[in-house]
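User: What would this chain look like folded?
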Amino acid sequence: MYPILFQIGSVTIYTYGVLAAVGFLLGLWYAYHRAPQVGLDPNRVWNLGIYGILIALGTSKIWLILSDWDYFSANPRQIFSIATFQSAGVFYGGILGGLLWVILYTHFQKMSFLAVLDLVAAPVALGHGIGRLGCFAAGCCYGRPTHLPWGITFSNPVAEKISGTPLDVSLHPTQLYESAAEFLNFGLLVWLGAKRRLTGQIIGAYFILYGLERGTIEFFRGDPGRTLMFHDRLSLMQIVSAALVVTGAFLWLRGHGAAAPIPPATTARAAAGRS
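Assistant: Here's the prediction, encoded as structure tokens.
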């Protein structure tokens, strides 16, 4: 595909990084404007997102290093290399780091933890869907070889260099599978969010949807470093996916008291804070 968007002298702008940034900003924009409708201060939501993405990027790279520790322990300089810095890391590592940040932030800011998770569920799906298009452009997170008519063949040597992408081999377009699924998740979560509901059900729905999605797509992934287990029959991501489905089902069935909306005057002052 197109791993490199453009170059300015010695500075290289990668397509994946640009699309990941676009996905994050669009998701944060949506959450910011949606916040007053669900009784949350948009300014606090904005701060939560800005600091949260930095923490999520850090923990996603930590997960990447730990998941391929044999390589990084043998090549310790690679831990602090440009390639590792530019890498998006492992999505679940980012999710866990981001979740820990949300727990701490909502505790100290006295915000409803589940209400915040409900709010960010759809934006996360939107940002992830756009980010997976970046994966497709970069050739990372590629699929297993396939003879199906929609198989994708990569030919750019840059993709092979930075992601180890097999060239001139028809592969499952797993990046597009996941991107399409996440855009569908976004639409479903927006639809659910517009209805009267119990707090915790929207994030519960996302856990279920994403757990089923990722657990299935893992069977078609062909990239290394996914911590395969049980004689390479399952990956760690599939075990985490199963845990997400169970957690999501619990949240959906259990629910919580619905949060009261912010009074109109408060909402207007809060929204004006970032105008």
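Residues 4-267 form one domain. If you want, I can go into more detail on any region.
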